[in-house]
Design goal:
The protein is an alpha+beta fold. The longest helix has 17 residues, at 100-116. The radius of gyration is 26 Å and the shape is globular. Keywords: Endoplasmic reticulum.
Amino acid sequence: MGMAENEGKMQGWLHLIRYNRIGLQYSRKRYFILEDDCLNSFKSIPTSHTEEPVRRAIIDSCIRVVDNGRGSHRRKLFFIFTIYNTANHNDQLKLGATSSEEAARWIHALQDAAVKTVDLVSCSKRKYQPFRLSVSKRTEKRSIDWTSTSSVHVEAMTSDVIAPSPWEIFGCQNGLRLFKEATDRDSNVRRWDDHPAIMAVGVINGTPEAVFRTVMAVDASRTEWDFCFHKGSVVEQLDGHTDIVHVQLYKHCLPWAMKRRDLLVRRYWRREDDGTYVILYHSVFHKKCQRQNGFVRAYVKSGGYVIIPMNRGKKCVVRNMLSVDWRCWKSYLRKAYARSITICMVGTVAALREMYKTKEECSIDIGVLESEEEIKTEVGCKRIQNETNEAMPGYISGTSSISGLNDIADEFFDVPAPSEDEEGWPSNANSDSCYVNSGQPKFSSAANFVKRLQDLAVPKKGYIDLQSVSWGDSLSCSYGTTLPRDANLKMPCSCAEADPTSFLIRGKTYLHDQKKIKAKGTLMQLVGADWIKSSKREDDLAGRSNGIVTNYAAEGRSDFFFVINIQVPGTTTCSLALYYMVKMPLKETPLLERFIDGDDAFRDSRFKLIPYISKGSWIVRQSVGRKSCLVGQALQMNYFRGKNYLELGIDLGSSTVAKGVVGLVLGYLNNLVIEMAFVIQGDTAEELPEILVGTCRLNHLDAAKAVSTDAISSSIS
């Protein structure tokens, strides 16, 4: 059953979820009501206002909600999310909805409820009340309109970055507009790459969720619209947002005399706050799915779908993007073959459109089968159980930290870029030789998978190679100086300040017209940066000796530092630390002063990041997006307050969605120019217009050139 929204409260049926050693188990179906600052659970729909709930949870500023993606049990598909208490990570509750839209509404409602209590009660002042608390007397209700407009919903509709489109149109076919990825060359030069990225765009008379379910299916139902698809399967379910998929293609979609092709891809999906679905994939190697006789395995550089709602969700715009090396051995046929096959593949959007048109006119079932759509229980459930630690009795997980929720034994790594004259894999390719020849040890956790993406990046060609000797000689081993600064934006693996006018922030009248304006400047200036690696997560970098912050304090200077420490999980944890110095006294910027001196709950509700990939592959641009995000509502943040600094530690490993994005970004890191802006969100008229805290531009970062913390420590000693 779905969820109802009436009389200022959320209510509906959800499933209590738990995991055991075998896999996912949903324990019981319960009716939940979210009202005021309480989430109440009932065995059945309450018949009166005075009926007591079975369980009750307090929703306040300490509460966070994590989207765990899809999971299946007994051929039933669930969209799972976790509610947890930042004051005690053992205090958590997993719930499952039967549709992604229903799960998204609950997630948004719970997030809005937590944000609205920030100014009312703080984590430190709140009496701890766990989710498994027995029922207590009901308190008098005060109505809150959960359906009112919130920043979560409004701001998801547009971009917060001013940037040109990465696509240019080259034709129209079967009612679809066809685009190719724009290049940096002059617009008058019409040259096709060897393996061009091509996009088809069309409008479908179906809801975004229905289309999402259709394109995610890899069973027989896909043959009703995908005329290139012959057979497919889910090889392994990594987590609720990521899986490994094998697909065999029909021969008729290939040129004459060309061998049949198959694909093995890592597929990642997410749902945006405005209802947009993003599905991205690229080729990987997996020891459970070796090269098959009679097939040549094509190399998917990047591909995916973007399903954008329109007409209030009754229709959607579908973008199908693909860049593939089809492994054609005849050089004079490569470009023509690659282009024609790729156009044929993305052209399946037209068939998808016609299927939904037929459904609308004839009112027939489109035939999406449950078995494959529900993630192949036999390969999925055994892997999903590692998303969390073993469940404790009851409904409370024993996990003490978010990073431990996804300890998946990965058995795949990214495919190295193919050579120009190969058609198939080397004849001696096998799982053992691939591991040994690549020089990689056997990994056993999801965190190590992120490290593997660093070391085995997909797009090897075109990487800028720096001499390690000269790099080491040019670095200063002290905190705040390990990442060189280059104002000319030409030095690889360097940083600089980005142009603030490229970013949009809330204007003076935003509360009335929701309009944003160009930023004119920043409150702080970038004075240093670190790109370091360690065997563990590194916190409180600003407080370490012989660093830029402590050196300023030792000199008796009154400058205040604002440090942002972005922590990338892995076997070797990388940290990107940005050191900003305040340009003016804190008392002249009340909102910033309140943020620095406030509690963690307030900080979590106000700190925003605006990301932008100004140079790089379209798949990374699509994955990262260009929309501001309240970081503390999506990721675990740790704050460290010193005499002359505030450090914000952003743990990218605290979310499965973030891990998926990080995985894609790290694979292309050397080819990217990443720009970011940081904002303290203004929620009242007195706090508007917003002002950027600071900006940064990262040029072609290289994980191999991160400086070890041991090297810094030895230089200090």
